[in-house]
Amino acid sequence: MGRWALTLPLPTALVAVAAIFLWPGLVGPGYDAAIFTLIAFRIRSGDMPYRDVWEHKPPGIFLADASVQSLFPWLDPWTPVWLLSVVCAAALGLVVAVALRTNGHPKLAPWCGLATTATVAAFPISYGGGQSELVAAVPAAIAVVALSHRPGQALTFASGVLLGLACSTSWHLTPALVVAFALVLHGTDRWRRSFLLVSGVSAVGAAIAAWLILGGAWSDAIDALVSFNLVYRAVNLVDPIVKFSPSAAAAFLALAALLGLIAMTRRPPRAIFVVAAAWIGLSIVMFVAEGRLGAHYLASIAIPLGILAGPGLAMVAPRSSRGISAGPLIAQLLLVSAIAVSGISTVYWTRALGEIYVARASSLREAANWLRSLDCAETLLVWGHAPEIYYVSGLRPASRYVSLPALMTEGWATADRVEGVANEINSLRPAAVIDASSWGGSLVTFPLLQPGSFTAHDGRYVDKLDPIRDIVRARYVFTRDVAEWPTYVLAHERTSLPAISHSRICCWIESVTCSDGRALRASGSER
Fold first, then answer.
1. What span, in angstroms and rounded, lies between the C-alpha atoms of 158 and 143?
2. What would the pLDDT profile of 236-266 be if each residue is shown by its tens digit?
3. Of the candidates 324, 352, 380, which is a domain's last residue?
4. To bridge 256 with a disulfide, which of 130, 312, 390, 512 should be the other Cys (CB 3.0-4.6 Å)?
5. CA distances from 248 to 119, 167, 253 (A)
């Protein structure tokens, strides 16, 4: 049993568990994952993040998604990203199993690995895949576990590279970088090892910075990653509580890790367990300071939770030699209850969100069929929360803001910034505008042509976008509802997109649609 972590059955089981839990997300991405998938798709066409397609997350997730899309060019853009999530979820479980097997818990290693994979892949935490924390956690986990074994110079440098990749994919892995430095500073030859670790991290940072500078996106990246995030962090103190509620899916792993902390007080712990505890503590401080506690953030601390679960479960495991005692029995009952809580939360959120994802995927298929009748060189404007429309149709966005909420954020969205976007749209004159303000039948932002603003605590005001809405009112006319989304076309071109039946569209598209890779032939320089 102790060798299971290094043989084929465990990796196979981990991949199977990850695929089963992530399966509902295969139909299509969630909102954040859709943006990342789109940006990756546009990078493959020559666009630059931040300059040509805007987002406030670090660029590593875009590059990772673009890489797997390039590995499987015959698939749609989302499926390779989903497959990457399956591999990452399984990899996290394997890292936990290896860490525990080499640190005194070989029998519990595979089970803690399976629990870790099930937790990060659970729909309430993974949102069906594509989240940056899940991808970033893998290189960070490998690096920290490797450094706990005091590797040689080459592996220390490689660990620095892995940590650089992790932090360039998600800021939430910064605590892993901190504890990694603590590991190299503990023991002999600390300064040389610290230099090697810093060199590895710096090499990744320098490479990404050079790419952004050469691509002409450096100033836009600083604006998005620094200026916007400073404002974004201060917005909305109620929303995090709501977003964090699905984290109940991690109840079992969290309780097992808490028991692991208690176990650490009973005997001198090994370095990996001290590091895991510090990683969790620093992450909690970071989450609170950031003020936006999404349940998907938990993927960034799944590794230390899984590692601490080993000594925690070992402490309360039944032993015939000691008989029945109250403490372990209570802990066992609590663990059983935590399993029930995790299971109920996972089932509830999987059903609730899964139904929305299926309905959304159906809407996207209908929208794609309709939009593929447009010329390959046309642009499109999507209002609301459906950036997937851009890549499923193959049409280029009419604005770099493929997600409009940023332009409604108080303290960052200025009148000049919104006016600049309006001028860009006015110049490009997108062939169609889709009002995707509803998501799976639920309103997620204000409809395109309906006045109103978000509540003050949300810090976003839709009326800031009135210059964009005025363009639509003045130059576009409603043509039809595509699935649940109202669609508008240029007034003088209304007849170019007739509201014919779905079956006729499907037949008509086959003869006139561009190839699936049509957007990849349009470089950012053409804009």
1. 8
2. 544 554 555 667 778 899 999 999 999 988 8
3. 352
4. 312
5. 10, 26, 10
Same domain for 209 and 337: yes
Please name which of 253, 246, 240 lies closest in space to residue 286, comparing C-alpha atoms: 240
Q: Note down the domain range covering 323.
A: 4-352
Cα 125 from Cα 128, distance rounded (Å): 8
Residues 324 and 203 in one domain: yes
DSSP 431: S
Which SS3 state, helix, strand or coil, does residue 502 take?
helix
Cα(502)–Cα(507) distance, rounded to whole angstroms?
9
Q: 79-124: per-residue pLDDT in tens?
A: 999 999 999 999 999 999 999 999 989 899 999 999 999 999 999 8
| Residues 251, 257, 263: CA angle, nearest 5 degrees | 140
pTM above 0.85, yes or no: yes
- Amino acid identity of 133? E
User: Domain tally for the chain?
Assistant: 2
CA distance 243 to 253: 19
Across 502-520, average pLDDT: 38
Same domain, yes or no, for 197 and 322? Answer: yes
Other Cβ atoms less than 10 A from the Cβ of 516: the count is: 15
Residues 433, 340 share a domain: no
Q: Return d(Cα 383, Cα 473) in angstroms, integer.
A: 13
Q: Do the Cβ atoms of 231 and 283 come closer than 8 Å?
A: no
As a whole number of angstroms, the distance between CA 108 and CA 361 comes to 40
The whole-angstrom distance between residue 413's C-alpha and the CA centroid of its chain comes to 24
